[in-house]
Amino acid sequence: MSDLSEQLYDQLLPLVEKADLKAAEQLLLDALGNLPESPFHQITALHFTNSPQAVASYFDDFIEGESKRIPIRAIYTEANGFEINSDLWFCDVFAYDIDGRQEDYDWLSDWKSNDYESLTLTGMEDLQDVYNSPAFREESYEEACSVASLLVVIRIQQLIQRAIPKMTRLTYPLYVDAHDYDLTAKFVA
C-alpha cells in the first residue's frame, strides 16, 4: 500500500463503516484525478455490470439453502485477492450463527456455512488486464494502482448495496469486503 493509499484508508474507513459509499467513491476519484495519468485511471469510467437482480438471487439462493442447516445471524461476502488474481474476479459468501462486532472482525474466520459457488464479477475485464500487465509492477504507477484498488473495493460494495433492496431472504446484516483490505461495509436489510 502506498503512502497516499494509507492516508486515504484512514479517511475511507469511517465512510465505509457508515456505508456512505458515494462519499468514499468521490474521495478516491478526487485522489486519482490528482495523480499523473496511468492505465489504472480507466476505473473512473468502469463499474461492475452484474445486474442487481442476479446478485440478489445469488444471495437469496445461498440464504435459502444455508438457513435450512443453521440459524443465520450474519452474512459476509469477500472478493478474492483481485490484484494478484487478475484472470477472474469473484466474491465468496459465508454464513454465521452470530453477528459479531464491527470493531473486531476476528469472528469472520468462524463461518458455519458449507462451500458455495462463487459470484463472478463482470464489467472490469479491461482493468483486470491492466493488473495482469507490466503496469501493475511499474513504480511510477504505484499510487494510481493503490488508489484504483481501493476504488475496486468500493465498487464491489456498491454492487452489493444496489442488490440489497432486491433480496427477499436477507433479514440480518450483510458484511462486504475484499481479501486483505479490512475495509468492511455493513449493510442491513
Describe the structure.
39% of the residues lie in helices and 12% in strands. It has 189 residues and is α+β, with helices and mostly antiparallel strands. It has a 5-stranded mixed beta sheet with strand order 3-2-1-4-5, with helices on one face. A hairpin with a 6-residue loop joins strand 4 (174-178) and strand 5 (185-187).
Instruction: Evaluate the radius of gyration.
Output: 16 Å
Question: What percentage of residues falls in helices of 4 or more residues?
Answer: 25-40%
Anisotropy-based shape: globular
- Total E-strand runs: 5
Order of helices and strands: HHHEEEHHEE
Give the DSSP E fraction (strand runs of 2 or more residues): 5-15%
Q: Detail the poorly predicted runs.
A: none
Q: Number of helical runs?
A: 5
Numbering strands along the chain, what is their spatial order in the largest sheet? 3-2-1-4-5
User: What structural class is derived from the secondary structure elements?
Assistant: alpha+beta
CA distance, first residue to last residue: 33 Å
Q: How would a textbook summarize the main sheet?
A: 5 strands, mixed
> What is the averaged pLDDT score?
94
